[in-house]
Design a protein that fits this description.
Elements: H1 2-14, H2 21-41, E1 48-49, H3 57-60, H4 70-81, E2 85-86, H5 103-115, H6 126-143, E3 150-154, H7 157-171, E4 182-186, H8 192-200, E5 207-210, H9 221-233, E6 237-244, H10 256-266, E7 269-274, H11 284-289, E8 298-301, H12 303-306, E9 314-318, H13 321-328, H14 360-370, H15 373-393, E10 399-401, E11 409-414, H16 421-435, E12 441-445, E13 448-454, H17 462-481
Parallel strand pairs: 4-5, 4-6, 6-7, 7-8
Antiparallel strand pairs: 1-2, 3-9, 8-9, 10-11, 11-13, 12-13
Helix pairs in contact: 5-14, 6-14, 7-8, 7-13, 9-10, 15-17, 16-17
Bound molecules: pyridoxal-5'-phosphate (PLP).
Length: 483
C-alpha cells in the first residue's frame, strides 16, 4: 500500500500542472494586462534599442523547484526580451523584411494551444487538418495553381524552400551519382536559404549558374536560355531554376512568365521563392508585378511576411502534389489506424513533420475575424508607401536610388561630393539606428554599401514614412556639418 500512498503523493504535486479556475484567472489576467500594456505603449517605443546587457540575466537565473511569481516572470520578459534589440512588432521596422503580429493571430495561437488539436493526421484531427487544407486551397487559388496542388504550412520560408527543393530533387529522381552533374540556375540576388536548402538536401555539389540580371535585378531570360543550351552541350543535366517573386534586397520580381515558358519547354523545375512577395497577389498592383507566378512548379509564400502574422509560418505549394507526397510518404506500424481515412491529405504525409504545431489556426482565425479586404488594402498601401518614399528621396541632393519599387522595397544611397560614399552611408545608417525610432537595414550591391527601406509591417503608415524621411534629413544634415 506504500506504493498507492506514493502515487497519491506524486499526484498531488503533479496536479499543479492543471491550475484551477482562480489560478488560471490570476495567470491569464496578468498576461493579458502585459499584452495590453505592450500594445498601448508600442507607438512610443523605440524600434531599435542598444543595450549592454542584451538579456544576459536570462542565462544567469536558474530554474527553481518552486514556482515563481507571475509578476517577476513577466518583468523578466519585459526587461530582457522585449527591450533590447530590434522590435519587429513596431511599425518603424523597415529593415530586412519586416514581420508583423496581427492581434487575432495571437488569439488563434492561444486557442490552438489550449485545445491542442492535432493537425498532423486527418483521422485524429479532421477539423484541424481541414482548416490547414482549406488555407492551402485558398493560397493555391490565389496564385492560380491547379487542383492537383498540394501544400504544407511549415515554420517559415527557409523550411518551405527546403521542402520545395527536396521535392524537385525527387521529381527528377536525382541520385547521388547525378549530384555533380545537375545544374541549378539562380541570380546573385537569390536568398541564402536556397543555398542552405541545396546543401541540406545533398545537392551542395550541384553546378550553380548565376544568370546575369537586367538593371532592375531581374534574371535575364535569354541568358538563361543560352546557358541551358550550353550546359546540355557540355553533358550536364539542367534541373532547377530558382526565381524570386520579390528578392529580399530590392524586391525585384524575376520575369516569371518567361521563365515558366523556358522551364516547361526545356523540362526543368521552376521553384519560385515568394516568401516575401507572393501575398502581394492579394492586391491589383501586386498581381501585375507577379504575372506568371502560376507557372511555377513549386512556390514558397510566407504568411509571417505578407499576411502580417507573427513569426513561424511559411507555406510550400507544389503544383503536382503527387511529388510532395512521394518525397514524404511513410507507413509506420504504429500509424496503421491513420491509414483508413483518406478523404483529406494529412500534413504528416506530405511534409517532414509528424507532431506539428496547428499553425493553420493562427492564419485562418484572423482571415475570418478581419475578412480579406483589410489585407488587400494594407498590401496595396505598402506598395504605395514604398513608391512615395522612392519618389521623394530620389529628388534629394546627391541621392541615388535603385530601381522603381515593383513591390515594397526601396534601395538607395547618397553620394556626397566631398567624402567616400560607403563610409557616409554607413554613418547614416548608424545615426538612424542610434535614433532608434525607425529601423533600416543595409546591403551590398556590386560591392557598394546601400540602404534599404522595406515596407511590410501592417503598422507602417504614411506618418512612419514621413518620420523616416525627417530622421534621414536631420541625420544627413548633422553628418555633413560634422567635418
Ligand atoms: C524571408 C525570406 C526567406 C526566408 O524565409 P524565413 O521565413 O525567414 O525562413 C526566403 N526567401 C526570401 C525571398 C525571403 O524574403
Amino acid at each position: 500500500m506504500d506504493s498507492i500512498r506514493n502515487i497519491k503523493y506524486l499526484e498531488e504535486i503533479a496536479r499543479t500542472l492543471e491550475p484551477q479556475k482562480p489560478a488560471r484567472k490570476h495567470l491569464w489576467e496578468a498576461v493579458i494586462r502585459y499584452g495590453e500594456n505592450f500594445l498601448d505603449k508600442l507607438g512610443s517605443l523605440k524600434t531599435y534599442r542598444e543595450d549592454k546587457e542584451k538579456g544576459k540575466p536570462l542565462l544567469d537565473e536558474e530554474f527553481e523547484e518552486k514556482p515563481q511569481d507571475i509578476g517577476h516572470i513577466l518583468k523578466m520578459i519585459e526587461k530582457y526580451v522585449n527591450t533590447p534589440g530590434l522590435n519587429p512588432a513596431s511599425g518603424g521596422h523597415l529593415g530586412y523584411i519586416p514581420g508583423g503580429g496581427i492581434y487575432p493571430a495571437a488569439l488563434g495561437d492561444y486557442l490552438a494551444a489550449v485545445t491542442n488539436r492535432y493537425a498532423g493526421v486527418f483521422f485524429a484531427g479532421p477539423g484541424a487538418v481541414r482548416i490547414e487544407n482549406k488555407l492551402i486551397h485558398w493560397m493555391r487559388d490565389l496564385v492560380g495553381f491547379p487542383d492537383t496542388t498540394l501544400g504544407h504550412i511549415a515554420s517559415g520560408g527557409s523550411i518551405a524552400n527546403l521542402t520545395g527543393i527536396v521535392c524537385a530533387r525527387d521529381a527528377f529522381e536525382l541520385k547521388g551519382k547525378d549530384f555533380e552533374r545537375v545544374v541549378v540556375y539562380v541570380t546573385q540576388q537569390v536568398h541564402h536559404s536556397v543555398d542552405k536548402a541545396l546543401r541540406i538536401s545533398g545537392l551542395g555539389e550541384a553546378v550553380k549558374r548565376f544568370i546575369p540580371m537586367d538593371n532592375a535585378f531581374r534574371m535575364d531570360a535569354s541568358c538563361l536560355r543560352d546557358q541551358i543550351a550550353k550546359d546540355r552541350k557540355a553533358g550536364l543535366k539542367p534541373w532547377l531554376v530558382v526565381a524570386a517573386a520579390g528578392t529580399t534586397d530590392t524586391g525585384a520580381v524575376d520575369p516569371l512568365d518567361e521563365l515558366g515558358e523556358i522551364t516547361r519547354k526545356e523540362d526543368l523545375w521552376l521553384h519560385v521563392d515568394g516568401a516575401y512577395g507572393a501575398f502581394f497577389m492579394l492586391c491589383e498592383q501586386g498581381k501585375k508585378a507577379l504575372k506568371g507566378i502560376e507557372k511555377a512548379d513549386s512556390l514558397v509564400m510566407d504568411p509571417h511576411k505578407g499576411l502580417f502574422l507573427p513569426y513561424g509560418s511559411g507555406v510550400i505549394l507544389v503544383r503536382n502534389g503527387g511529388y510532395l507526397q512521394r518525397s514524404h510518404y511513410y507507413l509506420a506500424h504504429y500509424m496503421q489506424d491513420a491509414k483508413d481515412y483518406d478523404e483529406e491529405v494529412s500534413p504528416a504525409e506530405i511534409s517532414p513533420e509528424l507532431s506539428k504545431h496547428f499553425r493553420g489556426l493562427r492564419i485562418w482565425f484572423p482571415l475570418k475575424v478581419f475578412g480579406l479586404n483589410p489585407f488587400r488594402a494594407a498590401l496595396e498601401e505598402k506598395i504605395c508607401l514604398a513608391r512615395y518614399f522612392y519618389e521623394t528621396i530620389r529628388l534629394w541632393d546627391h541621392a541615388e536610388v535603385g530601381p522603381f519599387p515593383e513591390l515594397s522595397v526601396v534601395l538607395f544611397r547618397f553620394l556626397p561630393p566631398d567624402r567616400p560614399a560607403d563610409q557616409f552611408n554607413k554613418d547614416l545608417i548608424d545615426a538612424v539606428k542610434k535614433d532608434g525610432r525607425v529601423f533600416l537595414s543595409s546591403t551590398q550591391i556590386n560591392g557598394h554599401f546601400y540602404l534599404r527601406l522595406a515596407v511590410l509591417s501592417f503598422r507602417t503608415h504614411l506618418n512612419t514614412i514621413d518620420l523616416t524621411l525627417s530622421i534621414l534629413k536631420e541625420s544627413i544634415y548633422r553628418l555633413k556639418s560634422t567635418r
